[in-house]
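Today's session is about reading a structure prediction critically. Students often jump straight to the picture, but the first step is always the sequence itself: look for stretches that repeat, for charged clusters, for runs of hydrophobic residues. Only then move on to the predicted structure, which in these notes is written as discrete structure tokens rather than atom positions. Here is the chain we will use throughout the hour.
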Amino acid sequence: MSRYIITGGKQLKGEVSIRGAKNASFKQIIASMLTNETVFLNNVPQISDVRITTSIAKSLGCHLNQAGEHCLELNTNEITNSIVPSGTGEKSRTSFMFAAPLLTRTGTATVPTPGGDKLGDRPLDRLFDCFSHMNIKVLETDNKITFNTDKIVGTHYTFPKPSHTVTEVILMTAALANGETILDNAALEPEIDDLILMLNGMGAKIQRDPSDQKKINIQGVSSLKGTEHSVICDRNEIVTFACAALATKGAINILRVKPDVVKTFLDTIKNMGANVKVGNDEIYVEWTKPLTSVNIETGPEPMFMTDWQAIFTVLLTQTVGCSSIIERVYPNRFQHIENLKNMGVKFNLFNPNITDPENYYQFNPESDRPEYFHGVKIYGPAKLKPADFIINDLRAGASITIAALTADGKSTINGVEYIERGYEKLAERLWSLGANIEYIKT
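Below is the predicted structure for this chain, in token form.
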């Protein structure tokens, strides 16, 4: 079990470059398998989620070459296996996305049930429902899902609630379907638009409706070609480094970014009193005075991203007053709060009084449990105490890392393999900003 040893209390200052997005890169590796021609992906982060995805892709017939430190050359001349292996497949919560290239090229796909972080159930009912309209049959068993089709057909489908990952699976599948597919109430996340850009570079015909960005039109084509594409910047990394700087009362220049992808976050910290300057491809964030409390709700783009809330919680512990977060995307995403309690954070978990929870929350009602809380109040500023931790979740691990950087004294974080799922060389990059952090790999 690898670990960080952090002696906190130092201001973070300096410059950091942002890597390619975790939530775009591994999906685009999967999308490369839609064609038998060569695809070059640039700005691919060196993280374990990418390594898991490439391992699965190889088992299905994809040939990969590391063309540079952050560039992959991929060619799937032939799909040699339509079954995603259970071992590596169960490690990834999105191994079911391989169904798209497998179905379009072989007519069948078998994938393990989703794994990944422990955020509550990950229902695939929206995917199954849309697939059924596309002449794709679904068979579920206890630990695997089998898809079959003799001909994928286009459809007009309205998502009951926007779904980021399912939208991407349907885009890949519909790109090679027979006829036209129209998706209504589709998700708006920038990673989706980056996938559309890649697919169109491969010869797909996909367009958002100019008058309704939640409507996507896909004209199915008979085949796709190779392309070269650069993965979009990771907005979770941007928020992580910005929160680390502000929580430690420091300043940071964040390079190689698209500021628009974190506009909601930047607007939020500006309102709290942070000094924020935005350039074409960089963001400067500085603590100049005590930050004020704020109330946020997570939700689909353009709302406050659910992946940000665990990291943002640490920043809220350093603000003046009572802040609140309401989690609307996942039924159970406050596991990191107990860790912060051990560091001296004062908080109160609660459930908001919502008159129409079925429409207010993005998760399915059957995923909820009486013991789950959907809101938390954070009372600041808090003087954080060092502590020792064992983590089992990516974003919670990142939040504890920021908390340890903020606390005076030595903290040990075990299980940082989870952090490495989404951050490339995080300890090394934090060290370059002045953090006292030691990475012990076992």
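Discussion point for the tutorial: The longest strand covers residues 212-219.
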